[in-house]
Every structure is written in C-alpha cells, then in structure tokens.
Amino acid sequence: MTTLDRTRYLRRRVTNAIILGVSLFTVAFALFFLAWILWTLFSNGLGHVTTKVFTQMTPPPGSSGGLLNAIAGSLYMVLMATLIGTPVGVLAGTYLAEFGRAGWLAPTTRFVNDILLSAPSIVIGLFVYEGVVHRMGHFSGWAGALALALIVLPVVVRTTENMLQLVPNSLREAAAALGAPQWKVVIMVSYRAARAGMLTGVLLAVARISGETAPLLFTALNNQFWSNDLNGPMASLAAIIFQFAMSPYEDWHHLAWAGALLITLFVLGLNILARSIFKKSEAGH
C-alpha cells in the first residue's frame, strides 16, 4: 500500500468515525427528549388514572369526576372517521396502483393527495368549519368525524398504493392467464398479498387522528355532558385535555395529565400493533 493509499484510507476512517459519532449523538439526543416526555407523562398522569376516569363525566371545578364522555366522544368520532376515510382511501389507492398507470388523472391525484397529506390539521378544521359547521349553523360530531376523515384519507391512499405496488406483477399475470378479470385479480390476488400492509396503514392513520385537537375545536367543539348524538357538539379527549390544561384548577390539571397519558398509551399501542403486523407479513413472505 502506497503512502497515498494509506492517506486516503485514514481519511475515510476518520470521516466514517465522525459521521457515526454525529449519528449516534443525534439518536441519543432524540431518545433523551422522548424518554423525558414519557417520564413526565407517567409521573404526572399515572397516579390519576383511576376507575373514576372511565366511569364518571367531566366535572365542574372543585369536584371529582372522570373523562367518560370525552373518551366515548373520541371513540365515536375516530370510528366514524375511519369508516368514512378508509374505503375511499383504499379505492383511490387501488386506482392509482392498478388502473391509473397511464394518463393525467393518476399524477394529478397523487399531487393532490401529497398536498392533503402535508396540510396542517388546523387548516382542515377551518375548511370543514366553513363548509359544514357554518352552513349547518351549529357544531357537531359529524363535522368532527369528517375533519378527521380528511386526515385519514391521504394516509390510507399512500399506504394502499405503496403496498399494492410491492405485489409482484407475476402474480397478476398468472391470475390473468387463468382467465380472471382485472377486478377479480385485484380483489383475490393483490388485496390478499397486500392486506397486512394496508391494515398497517389504517392503524397508523387511526393513531394519527387519535390526538388531533385543532380540527375538533373548529368542528365538534366540546360537551361537558354525555352525548352519543353526532348531530350536536361532542366532547373529545383531546379537546378536554386542552381545556383542562389551560384552566387554573388543579383537579382539572390532574385529569388533563390522565387524559394525555391515555392518548399516548393508545397511540403507542396502535403503532406497536401496526409494526408487529407488518413484520409478520414480511416474515411470511
């Protein structure tokens, strides 16, 4: 090895060590703040997660209570948003991956979907407020579910398209060679091969909307009482956390910490479930 080669080798080793050190530092930096946030949530919220949180309504200041109506309202709106956004997203992603490989409509749809995917949630809330709440003349759970569905939609579209594009064309060609029409190839072959990844995308979309606050403040607003009527204002866990955390009452602060911990655990559980399903599908292939 010549002197020039040794110099180049040493320079590469030094560069590699520097990049590796910077990478490890940034990872440690991010993990430190993540651990700090989780520790703060658990230390402030775990002691206040009692049976009352799941069995009693949100209380007035100075009295005990829970978050039952807020939890139920969040579940209602997240469920309706998922039921609205998932079928539309799956069908749109299927068109992009299976039918829209030529022409102008597919690139335009991808462009619009990318804009919607990166749009701030507060903008979506304002859009639904102007288009639904203002015209109806009142806040409603349906408006909140629609705002959340618009957040679910682009995530499901992108995930569905990507998962279907990973399905080998040889499977489609084999099914077509047996005489199967294209719609049956999509349902019986493409969907079966990509169902784990598509389900992962839906779970990630649900995890994303579970903690959204801004769209619900403009659409569903809030409700201190129990309500399963989506035509009127509806409580949500995120809105209650915002209201209670900004209040001067210590008992409300305790419930806000408990609610924040519940949302965090729910989102964490959905992410773990989604990743485990995706890893199982990869292992199966």
UniProtKB/TrEMBL annotation:
SUPFAM superfamilies: MetI-like
Transmembrane segments: 14-39, 75-99, 111-133, 139-157, 255-274
Cellular-component GO terms for this entry: plasma membrane
GO biological process: phosphate ion transmembrane transport
Keyword entries, A-Z: Cell membrane, Membrane, Phosphate transport, Transmembrane, Transmembrane helix, Transport
ABC transmembrane type-1 domain residues: 71-274
Gene Ontology molecular function: phosphate transmembrane transporter activity
Domain of life: Bacteria
InterPro entries listed in its UniProt record: MetI-like, MetI-like_sf, Phosphate_PstA, Phosphate_transprt_permease
Membrane topology category: Multi-pass membrane protein
Localization per Swiss-Prot or TrEMBL: Cell inner membrane; Cell membrane
Family under the similarity heading: Belongs to the binding-protein-dependent transport system permease family. CysTW subfamily.
Protein name: Phosphate transport system permease protein PstA
